[in-house]
Structures are given as C-alpha cells and as structure tokens.
Amino acid sequence: MPRFVLIFYLLLLTMAGATQRNYEWGLGSSLAVGYVIKHSPKFAFDIIRPSYIISAEILLQTTGSQHWHHRNHHPIVSIAYQQVGYNHRSLGTAHSVLPSMYWPVFRMSGLRLSYQLGIGVGYFKKYFDNDPEKLNNAIGSRVNLIALNGLQIHSRNNQGLSGLAGIQLLHGSNGNVRRPNRGLNLPAVYFGLRYLPTTPDRVPVHHINSALTGSPYGLGIEFTHGWNQVDDAVRITHPVYGVGIYAFRYLTDANRVRLGFEMDHLHAEYMKREWTDRASPYRYMTYLEDEILIGNLSVGLCLGLNVHRGYAPFRFYNRLTLRYYIRQWHQYDLNGYFGLTLKSHLAEAEYLAIRFGATWH
User: Fold this and answer.
1) CA torsion, points 93, 170, 229, 38, in degrees to nearest 10?
2) CB 256 within 8 A of CB 240
3) DSSP string covering 279-319, please?
C-alpha cells in the first residue's frame, strides 16, 4: 500500500505541474541544524547530538501569467532534494523530494520575508524493522510523507543572488499505515544561498481584476478511503471510510474557507483498542478549513472537532490535504477533484487517505 500512495502522489504532482507554464528558473541551497523533539514519552531513544538537513532546490518564480500568481503576490515554487542526518545509530539518514511554495509575507527595501509550506516523499534508511536494537519506534516504514513549515528571510542584490536564513519544522510520518509511527519532528535554523534572476513587482490586491463570477458561496461533498494500523505488534492495516458535506466561501479567487461536517467509519479493532467500553465504528466531526488555490492544485489546512467524544481518542484533530481539480462541468457548475490527506492529532498521525469529491458553485 505505501508504494501505491507514492505512485498516486507523484501522479498528482505530475498532473499539476503539466498545467503550469511561464516560470523564471533559479537555484538554491541551504544547511539546517536542529534537534529532534521527543514529543511522546514512548520514544525508546535519547537525542544527544544535533541533526542536520542539506537541501538543494530548483526554484521557479511565478511571473504573473496566471491569475493566482497575482493573488498570492508572485510566490516561488520549489522542488528540493534533502538529505537529513539524524545523527543517531537507530535513526540513520533520510532522503526526500520536497515540492514546496514560498508565499511573500512582508517586503521592505531589499529584504523579503516568506512563509514556506512543503509536502513531499522521503526514503528512510533506518526504521523499526531493520533496527537491531529496536530503538527506532518513531518510524515504521522506509517510505514516508514529509511535511515542512517555515519562515524565511532573504536579501537580494541586483544580480539575483540572495543570502537567506530562517526557521523550519520538518515532520516525517507514514500516516499510521505501518506502525510504529510516532513520527519524527525536527525544528531547525538554516542558512543558505539562492540565485533567482527575476523578482516581479508586487501588484496591489485592489488593482487585480477578480476572476470570480456570480456568488462567492458554494457547496461540496467529499469521500475518503484511508488506511491505518492499530498495534505495533500486530502489523495488520485496516481500512477507514468517510463521507462529508461542506459549504465554502471565496475570500479571494485564490483562497476560500470551508465549513463542514464529516463522518468516519473505522475498523472494529481500532475502536476496541481505543475505547473498549463504548466501541463504535462511527465518528462524527465538524471542521473549518482554509484552502489555498494554486491553479488546478490546492492545499488545505484544517482544524476539526470530534462532536461525539465517547469513541474518539482525541477531541481535536488537524488535517493537511493536497487536491487536484480535474475538470469543470459548466452546465451544472460542478468541479470534480481527488487528492491525498494526512489526518493527525498535533504531532501524531492517525491515518493517511485518498479523498475525492465535487464542488458546486
């Protein structure tokens, strides 16, 4: 199953990339240093030495050829190779491919502050099954999803060369597809260099003609099929099914907010492990999601609440979703999509899933 998720993820990114045009190219590299956070008392290993991240990236500066470039103030798209050295005999090293985007937050003279969000795939040389000491109870598979959040500040000269520095949080997890999966969280500071010849002038939002027509409100329906394991010893993957409905409102034509209600159907073994006295296969939730639209691709950041606490191991949950909108049926104002989502409870993943659905606007 992890191989299927990897192929699905790469297919989604390939389809999204094929729809994007007219970028200015550049290069960048950086070195980050930090310490792994032991966010769970169940970790079997101790962190003594710092970890490092070496990154080399291809940069694509949006030039305004598409409407969302202006709405997001000409963000930079990045495709990076990262080598992560955890500096521990049981954690080893990891190699990842990380597509990400830098959104400008603040500009002043030659300085620029950006927010970075990346979602990629990593290959871990060390994991639970091939660790003789069985200390690596944070990672249970070779292939894992990688998520990165960070803030970066850089100064640029007239030749396009920039010095940069920032802070970031790198998270590795397989979405509970194979246990143990407590995940690795690595906060770090970093420094680097970048060469990017073109930086478009920022266009004030009130000077941009909206691509929206009609009402800013709409409705949608979404279906989920996911996988998780419930026990470190019994390595059996169980399915998760879900359905949800939601209403949304466009804040701009590159950003909208969803308010929804959803239901998960979980395997009986999962519920027996979590709440033996009130086990039930159903879970009811409500959520609020901010969805950033990037051409045919979108990134959703969600915060949700389990309405019925009796059979939910956590009250709140968070979710990161990558969607690709495949077509629009103008006759019915429908837009279909599919995507990949990782549902977590702060730093601990619950399940990885494929989502598909449609919006009506």
Assistant:
1) 80
2) no
3) --SEEEEEEEEEEEEETTEEEEEEEEEES-GGG-S-SEEEE
Separation CA 125–CA 113 (nearest Å):
34
Whole-model pTM? 0.77
- In the three-class reduction of DSSP (H, G, I as helix; E, B as strand; rest coil), residue 70 is classed as helix
Lowest mean pLDDT among 101-105, 128-132, 142-146: 128-132
Name which of 158, 192, 176, 185 is nearest 59 in CA terms. 192
Q: Average pLDDT in the 253-266 region?
A: 90
Backbone angles phi, psi at 253, to 5 degrees: -75, 5
pLDDT digits (tens, 9 = 90+) for 185-233: 999 999 999 988 766 555 444 444 555 556 789 999 999 998 876 655 5
Q: Which of 303, 296, 291 is nearest to 336 (CA)?
A: 296
- Which residue, chain included where needed, has tokens 């990339």? 17
Q: Cα angle vertex 182, ends 181, 185, to 5°?
A: 120
| Among candidate residues 157, 127, 146, the one with its CA nearest the CA of residue 55 | 146
One-letter amino acid of 219: L
pLDDT in tens, 320-340: 899 999 866 655 578 899 998
List, in order, residues 6 or more apart from 297 with CB less than 8 Å away.
16, 322, 323, 324, 325
| β-pair type (334-345, 297-306) | unpaired
Q: Which residue has tokens 């520095």? A: 165
List of residues 6+ apart from 271 with CB closer than 8 A? 279, 280, 281, 311
Residue 235 tokens read as: 């390595």
Tell me the sheet residues that pair with 168: 150, 188
